[in-house]
Amino acid sequence: MGFDFNRGVTAESEHPFTLNLDKNDVRLTTKYIENAPFSSIFSTIHETGHGIYEQQVGDDLQGTTLATGGSMGLHESQSRFYENMIGRSMSFWKGIYDKNIDVFPVLKEINIDELYREINRVEPSFIRTEADELTYSLHIMIRYEIEKGIINGEIEIDDLPEVWNKKMEEYLGVVPETDRDGVLQDVHWACGLIGYFPSYALGNVYAAQLYNTMKKDMDVNSHLENGKLDRIKGWLRDRIHIYGKLRETAELIQEITGEELEPKYYIEYLKEKYSKIYDLD
């Protein structure tokens, strides 16, 4: 993917996250699930997006408060971009398919088209980090509505498990059997990160808009099939990463794409991709 292991490490944790001391000491963690390798793969790719961002912040910003991502929404755009636009694309898997057979011999039993459909299968799930692209934002809406209710004094903390389960059933049609798979699955609230979850939704929208512009500047699919992710990494470095917190996110999006934040690109991306996967054209 392009993460520099000379300036970073990976480790195992219960919930994936990324932290950095500076661009030369970036630490990624991920969670391994023995019988669900794709969950681990995409969590790792997601955190790699964060890590690459931190490793590519400009040298002149090191040692200052500007030596990190421009905003959490922009940071999540990089992780969601790598996880989904890159990691769940057909071109990416064509490029690494043979290598993955060496690691996962069972893949010999399915062809690349079957693999692509499987990694993009749409199905309601309990866990946000394991959700497909179409249902992911529903997980964010649930958390946003609960946070808003808590802040406004409309939801009591003791009632959170019940409220959570009701909203899961309302939005996704599933109810977790345990709080571990429900209200306690994320680390954010325990860390005091109230109001963070919408950053993921913003990240999806930013990522799609940036991806739309990137495709005009280069043949993304060709680079992915040929393993040339350094071209993509360089594009992101020169336009986003190098500036750290020096530039406002809205300013960068306008400058790079020629438009203000525009959700239509995310909607079009999802429609085009999943219409083909599910033969909805």
Automatic annotation (TrEMBL):
One of its GO terms (biological process) is proteolysis. InterPro entries: Peptidase_M32_Taq (IPR001333). It is an enzyme of class 3 (hydrolase). Keywords: Hydrolase, Metalloprotease, Protease. GO terms for molecular function: metallocarboxypeptidase activity. Coiled coil: none annotated. CDD domains: M32_Taq. It comes from the Bacteria. Its EC number is 3.4.24.-. This is Metalloprotease ypwA. The gene is ypwA_2.
